[in-house]
Structures are given as structure tokens and as C-alpha cells.
């Protein structure tokens, strides 16, 4: 049998869908939408550049299901068929070069910075930790009819994505957004059928998945991005995560992407990673190894990968079926092609301003990479040597001091 490597194709079970290799451009929040939250030529150019870069699958940044529920000012929203022309142009750009393009669909819940949305909603009226809450409005608990409406909105957006020419969707259930909030016993303290046991806390995601599947059709791929754990006291645990993934497998999910943490606990950025984890590169490799002992669902493992040997090792061990790449592709959009051809890829220096308060928040890392995406969207090359302190100055000039809050991807 031929050994599995990052260059190996992969066909989804029971789907006439084949990816040319195992590289996935994981979601990054582009922040490039127009003032009315639609994609334009900048986004088309960015995704055409990525499609030329060799990945088998590109997953978009957050596409919100409701214009009243934004995670940040530059979010794209898809909620009306009147907008399909622009999304068809995006799909054409992102499916160039035999590339698949999946739309990540999301609702932020209470992760809406002050001034971005009129109100914040959540499973329960539970605040963030005190150090974070000051940047967000206090959330109110959703009513049962509102929960049902949000489920329908996820399904509607997925249906529109299929009609626009996207080749799949990914439901975002990680990183502390609304679905993640429902899964977490820390943030979901409801006493009705939407809260309590993990079976009840999973109900929201289950109903969204089933509605999306029905609206988009049985042949349209549907994936889910989920935390391995929240890494918070009384939060979503690894055991609960495995329960949810097994239930999703039973429902027919086509692909799972593993991540971890929230913006209160940023493990998704490699914070607090052990020396042994850093040596193996992938932040959530041990969890993926455990998961794959009990499930056959295809898994994207994202976070920390930088070298081809580490990627091939994860694939050959069976811990992962796909390698998710995010930040490296903001600097080197042809990163997959470089890895496949074994061309040298320069190391990206840590994004540090030298100001501990800023660097510890992780805001500069997100902002610096976001600025690289903006360069690519204008047809320019990324600037891997751009000093982070200059990046901070640009950020403050554009947004003012209130920008010292975390942007999400």
C-alpha cells in the first residue's frame, strides 16, 4: 500500500468529492467586507491567490448568518439570495486550480465587541471573565423562539452557499462563539432542553447540523470546527468533545476540524503549549490521536504545523487526515506548493512589539497577520519582515486605543 503523505488525494466517504492533496487553508478572519458586509474584488483576489497556491481545500473566514450578529466590523454576511452574484464571484475565484472552497458559517453569540452589534445574546446571561468583559456588552439569554430562528438562519446561509458555487460549508462550533457557548457548561446554564447534560447542550449544534444537511442536500459536504477543550474551569472538556464528535459522526458529518481554547484561553494560538507539543508541532495532536482510536470521521488538525516531516508523520500515524494551515498562508500564500516541492520555507519570526501588555494579549499577532492579508488582497506581496511595532502604530492610527481587544478567527 502506498504511504500516505501530504501529497496524497482524499475522497470523502459516500460523496463524489476528491481533494487533490491533504492541505487545508484553515479559516482566518479576513476583515475585508464592504461597509454593507459583502465580499468584493479584494476578497476575490485574495482567494484566487490562495487557490493558485496549491491547497486542496480553502475554508473561508467567518461568514455570519445575520447582519445583526457580527463578530467584528469587517465580517461578511450571507442572508439573502439578492447577494448571490457577489458570492458566485467569490466561489469562482476560490475554486480555481482544482481547489475546493468551503464557507465557514457562524454566529458570534456574546463575542461581539462593543459598538459592533446592538446587543449580545448567549445561551445564558453569564459574563466573561472580568479582564475580558469590559470589551463586550453584557449578554442576555436567548428565548426558545430565537434559538429556533438562529437554527433556520444557519440552514438558509448554507443553502445559499451551495447555490453560489461553494463546494461545502463548515459550521463553526469552536473558539467561544455561540455554538461553543451552548456546548460549554460554564457559559450554558440553562435548565430547559437546551442546557444541563452534554446531550442537551449538544442539542443546538445537532439541530443546526440537521437543518443545514436538509437545506443544502445530502451530497453537499458539511463539516464542523470544534474545540478539543475550552481549557477553562467548568468548561467544555475533552470527554465532552469526543461525545459530540461521535454523535456528529452518527449524524453523517463529512469532516471535523480540531482546535481548542477560547479568547479567554487562547490555546488556539499555541499559548501554554508544552515543550513536547512544540517539538511535535501540532498543538492538539495528542487529542487527535485519542479521538481517532474511536472514530473514523475525517479530521483536519490545525495549529502549530510548520514542517513537511511533522505533517507527514501526523498523517501516517492516522491522527489526522488533513493538515490545517492558517498563519503561514497569510505570509506565503503558496505555502502548500512550497511544501509539496520541498522548497525551503523561511521561518516566520514571532510577532512581538517588546511591550509585554500588548504581546501577552496576542492582539499584535492577529493584527500583524491581518495586515498581511490586506496586502495580499490588493495584489501585493506579504511583508514577513514588517516590524510589529510599526504594525501596532498602524493599528492605533486606524482604530484608536480601544483596539486593545481581541479579534477572532
UniProtKB/TrEMBL annotation:
UniProt keyword terms in alphabetical order: Flavoprotein, Oxidoreductase
Which Gene3D superfamilies does this one have?
Aldolase class I (3.20.20.70)
Q: What name goes with this protein? A: 2,4-dienoyl-CoA reductase
Does the entry feature the keyword Flavoprotein, yes or no? yes
Task: From the UniProt record, list the coiled-coil ranges.
Answer: none
Q: Which terms does the record give in the GO molecular function aspect?
A: FMN binding; oxidoreductase activity
Specify the superkingdom. Bacteria
What does UniProt list as this organism's lineage? Bacteria, Bacillati, Bacillota, Bacilli, Bacillales
Q: Which InterPro entries does this entry report, sorted A to Z?
A: Aldolase_TIM (IPR013785), NADH_flavin_oxidoreductase (IPR051799), OxRdtase_FMN_N (IPR001155)
| Record-annotated NADH:flavin oxidoreductase/NADH oxidase N-terminal domain positions | 9-341
Amino acid at each position: 500500500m502506498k504511504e500516505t503523505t501530504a501529497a496524497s488525494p482524499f475522497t470523502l466517504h459516500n460523496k463524489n468529492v476528491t481533494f487533490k492533496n491533504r492541505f487545508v487553508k484553515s479559516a482566518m478572519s479576513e476583515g475585508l467586507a464592504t461597509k454593507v458586509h459583502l465580499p468584493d474584488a479584494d476578497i476575490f483576489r485574495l482567494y484566487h491567490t490562495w487557490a493558485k497556491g496549491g491547497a486542496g481545500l480553502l475554508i473561508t473566514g467567518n461568514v455570519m448568518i445575520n447582519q445583526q450578529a457580527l463578530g467584528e466590523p469587517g465580517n461578511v454576511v450571507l442572508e439573502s439570495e439578492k447577494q448571490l452574484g457577489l458570492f458566485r464571484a467569490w466561489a469562482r475565484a476560490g475554486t480555481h486550480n482544482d481547489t475546493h472552497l468551503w464557507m465557514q458559517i457562524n454566529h458570534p453569540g456574546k463575542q461581539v465587541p462593543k459598538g459592533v452589534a446592538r446587543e449580545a445574546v448567549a445561551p445564558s446571561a453569564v459574563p466573561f471573565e472580568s479582564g475580558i468583559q469590559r470589551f463586550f456588552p453584557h449578554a442576555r439569554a436567548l428565548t426558545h423562539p430565537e434559538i429556533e430562528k438562529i437554527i433556520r438562519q444557519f440552514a438558509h446561509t448554507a443553502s445559499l452557499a451551495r447555490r453560489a458555487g461553494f463546494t461545502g460549508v463548515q459550521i463553526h462550533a469552536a473558539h467561544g462563539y455561540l455554538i461553543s457557548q451552548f456546548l460549554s457548561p460554564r457559559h450554558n446554564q440553562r435548565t430547559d432542553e437546551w442546557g444541563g447534560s452534554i446531550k442537551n447542550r449538544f442539542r443546538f449544534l445537532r439541530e443546526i447540523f440537521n437543518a443545514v444537511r436538509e437545506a443544502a442536500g445530502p451530497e453537499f459536504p458539511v463539516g464542523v470546527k470544534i474545540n478539543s477543550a475550552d481549557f477553562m474551569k467548568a468548561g467544555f472538556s475533552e470527554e465532552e468533545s469526543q461525545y459530540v464528535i461521535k454523535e456528529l459522526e452518527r449524524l453523517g458529518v463529512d469532516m471535523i476540524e480540531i482546535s481548542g481554547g477560547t479568547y479567554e484561553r487562547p490555546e488556539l494560538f499555541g499559548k501554554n503549549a508544552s515543550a513536547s507539543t512544540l517539538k511535535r508541532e501540532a498543538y492538539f495532536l495528542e487529542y487527535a490521536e485519542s479521538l481517532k482510536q474511536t472514530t473514523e470521521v475525517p479530521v483536519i488538525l490545525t495549529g502549530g504545523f510548520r514542517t513537511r516531516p511533522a505533517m507527514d508523520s501526523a498523517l501516517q500515524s492516522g491522527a489526522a487526515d488533513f493538515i490545517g494551515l492558517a498563519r503561514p498562508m497569510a505570509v506565503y500564500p503558496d505555502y502548500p506548493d512550497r511544501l509539496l516541492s520541498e522548497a525551503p520555507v523561511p521561518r516566520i519570526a514571532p510577532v512581538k512589539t517588546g511591550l509585554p501588555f500588548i504581546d501577552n494579549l496576542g492582539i499584535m499577532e492577529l493584527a500583524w497577520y491581518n495586515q498581511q492579508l490586506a496586502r495580499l488582497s490588493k495584489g501585493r506581496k506579504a511583508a514577513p519582515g514588517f516590524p510589529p511595532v510599526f504594525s501596532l502604530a498602524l493599528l492605533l492610527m486606524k482604530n484608536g486605543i480601544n483596539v486593545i481587544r481581541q479579534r477572532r478567527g
